[in-house]
Amino acid sequence: MNIHEYQAKELLRQYGAPVSDGRVVLKAEEAKSAAGELDGPVWVVKAQIHAGGRGKGRFKEAAAGEKGGVRVTRSVAEAAEEAQKMLGRTLVTHQSGPAGKTVNRVFIEDGAAIARELYLALLVDRGSSRIAFVCSTEGGMDIEEVAASTPEKILSFSVDPAAGISGFHGRRVAFALGLEGKQVKQCVDLVNRLYRLFVERDCEMLEINPLIVTEDGDLRCLDAKMGFDSNALYRQKEILALRDETEEDPKELEASKFDLNYIALDGEIGCMVNGAGLAMATMDIIKLYG
Ligand code: ADP
Ligand code: MG
């Protein structure tokens, strides 16, 4: 199960990780008062959908030169106006599929002065039964693109959950990200907090892209993507409450009410199978025989 950026940032805040102050807006008429609660002088308006690449995404029926799903504004009025423009429209990104996703919520947050954009993610590494850290100095870009064009710029290592996290891991991340001075200590602290959040909340993925160094030299989580192990949701009531069913495929959602796993795919042949492996093999055989 995935959650929105603003929800992920609230969790990060609860665990003491540095995030910008922000407000979520569900109704156009709330945009102005929400923006007014923030300090400025820059307000960033961000479409909340369960897909990345929003900044470079495009709204359907966009006006010529219209910006994507992340917009920098310089007044409360402008922030409110941009938020209102996004609500209810469909945003298409490279992760949303061609149909795009409807923007039902926007997040308005304080603008950050960015010196560097970095990448940091935690994942479950099923191969080694460990928690993997993936780090890159090339933040703000698609990590898939970095992996394809400059794989040497991605460093990863894993932590044995039985032994747990230590300062050594945080320093390793700091070194991989080219951090120096006070940032090293901040990074060790951040890595400890992210690891604790990841384990305690049964995460499958926690991606900060970008993790930034501000012009004042501090670390801050500027974007956050979080996914949780569905099999653990029974013991994660607070996380389950963050579920946004409008982001899910209606057929998969209906099936889940009956404890069925339904995977919506293209085509005309449906397969009813017992187990994921058998499902894949059956699909392959049908395809093989045309
Ligand atoms: P996505 O990955 O979906 O495009 P991000 O949250 O990563 O969305 O935003 C895209 C880019 O917009 C970031 O890499 C960053 O350069 C900029 N950005 C996002 N939030 C802020 C902010 N609060 N202040 C300044 N710039 C921001
Ligand atoms: Mg991002």
Task: State the CATH topology of the largest domain.
Answer: D-amino Acid Aminotransferase, Chain A, domain 1
| The CATH fourth-level homologous superfamily of the largest domain | ATP-grasp fold, B domain
Shape estimate: globular
The proportion of residues in beta strands is: 15-25%
Main sheet overview: 6 strands, antiparallel
Bound molecules: adenosine-5'-diphosphate, magnesium ion
Low-confidence parts: none
Number of domains: 3
**Beta strands, count:** 13
User: Which CATH architecture of the largest domain is right?
Assistant: 2-Layer Sandwich
The secondary-structure element order is HEHEEEHEEEEEHEHHEEEHHH
By CATH reckoning, the class of the largest domain would read Alpha Beta
Quick summary:
The protein has about 290 residues and is of the alpha+beta class.
